[in-house]
Automatic annotation (TrEMBL):
Membrane-crossing segments per the record: 52-72
Signal among keywords: no
Superkingdom of the source species: Bacteria
UniProt cross-references to InterPro entries, sorted A to Z: DUF3152
One Pfam family hit: DUF3152
Polar residues biased stretches: 109-120
Protein's name according to its UniProt entry: DUF3152 domain-containing protein
Length: 377
């Protein structure tokens, strides 16, 4: 950026111009006196002083013109006027005219930029390589770097377009949290949970009522409808609703009590029930069956409640080869007591037992039978 003319800058040029034009009696004359070979020149200058003045003026004009050409981009007119005035005062009008002519010659050239600096060819190649405008790295030109060095240079940065948003890396996917092991599905026909069932002697005694309700089957309309509540002792590895489904499926089977006396069974989870089926631990079974003695091995049907011993429900009986059939017997036998049936005796060796024959520890020689009317349905 060019700055306006100032007295300080003009004074400096004036001082330099006056110093540069001290004439034949100044520094130039002293230098010539020390050189013996210049004596002949002094004699010629003494013989023709006007020619010497003109020659000196031309030299000064050439030097000052070059200087003005280098500085004319800032304050060319003021500098030329001051220098020409100083030369005219010291050397005369002709010398000042020579200075003005040199200024005009310099002014007719390029005023917008100072003379360029020419670099040696090697330096220019290095400058091009550094600035990225020449052959550069990887261009294969004379100034290219060796492949081993070029490969170690960092990759050039690329600027993103103003209209293009920089690509954002997608956020890392969260690591899946370890999920809890799924609960085991209840076994159909029993409601047991898990493959290995542990039988505990005594639990809390708190009963959990199975949620649900269902009317009695229509084909039992001619007989007694028993509203049955179903419960499981808390802490047993049993799904209460799955257990209830197993109980109702047994009670309303065509071979069940409906075929014997027309009884059918509705499911309720309220306290308005006619009969109740409870699955309990051996110790709780003993308590619920009092005053009957179940010795932690048996089940019972007392008053309106059929109490099923969980040990027998889970493990079956040695008198039965099929545990599922034993569970059907257990439900039908104990509910039979609730609806008014007493124990039967085995009719004889090899005979089919009736459902009211005690068949948990032994069948007394009879063939085990879980249904009140085996041939029905």
């Amino acid at each position: 950026m060019s700055s306006p003319s100032s007295p300080r800058r003009a004074g400096r040029h004036a001082s330099g111009g006056a110093s540069a034009g001290r004439g034949p009696d100044g520094v130039d004359a002293g230098r010539s006196a020390r050189r013996p070979a210049a004596r002949q020149g002094r004699r010629r200058a003494a013989q023709n002083p006007r020619r010497s003045v003109v020659a000196l003026s031309l030299c000064l004009a050439a030097g000052l013109g070059g200087g003005m050409a280098a500085t004319m981009s800032t304050e060319p007119d003021a500098s030329a006027a001051v220098v020409a005035g100083a030369v005219e005062d010291s050397l005369g009008v002709e010398a000042a005219d020579a200075v003005r002519n040199a200024y005009e010659a310099a002014r007719s050239g390029n005023r917008t930029s100072p003379p360029g600096q020419t670099l040696p060819s090697g330096a220019a190649a290095q400058a091009d390589s550094a600035s990225g405008t020449g052959a550069g790295v990887g261009a294969g030109g004379p100034g290219a770097l060796p492949d081993t060095l070029a490969s170690e240079l960092p990759a050039p940065l690329t600027s993103a377009s103003p209209d293009t948003a920089p690509e954002k890396s997608p956020p890392p996917s969260p690591s899946p949290s370890p999920s809890a092991s799924p609960s085991p599905a209840p076994e159909p026909g029993s409601g047991l949970l898990g493959a290995k069932i542990a039988v505990k002697q005594q639990l809390s005694g708190e009963l959990v009522v199975a949620n649900g309700s269902r009317p009695a089957p229509a084909d039992g309309a001619d007989g007694k409808v028993w509203r049955v509540q179903i419960a499981v002792e808390k802490g047993l590895p049993v799904d209460p609703e799955a257990f209830a489904e197993a109980v109702l499926a047994t009670l309303n089977d065509p071979r069940g009590w409906n075929a014997a006396d027309g009884s059918t069974f509705a499911w309720t989870d309220t306290e308005r029930y006619d009969a109740r089926v409870v699955l309990a631990s051996p110790g709780t079974t003993d308590e619920l069956c009092l005053p009957l003695d179940t010795i932690s091995e048996l089940s019972c049907g007392i008053e309106e409640t059929a109490v099923l011993n969980f040990k027998r429900w889970a493990t079956g009986s040695q008198a039965w080869e099929n545990t599922a059939r034993y569970r059907q017997y257990l439900v039908n036998h104990e509910v039979g007591h609730v609806i008014g049936y007493r124990h039967d005796l085995c009719a004889g060796e090899g005979e089919h037992a009736t459902v009211m024959v005690q068949q948990t520890t032994t069948t007394s020689g009879c063939i085990p039978e879980p249904w009140p009317v085996p041939d029905a349905g």
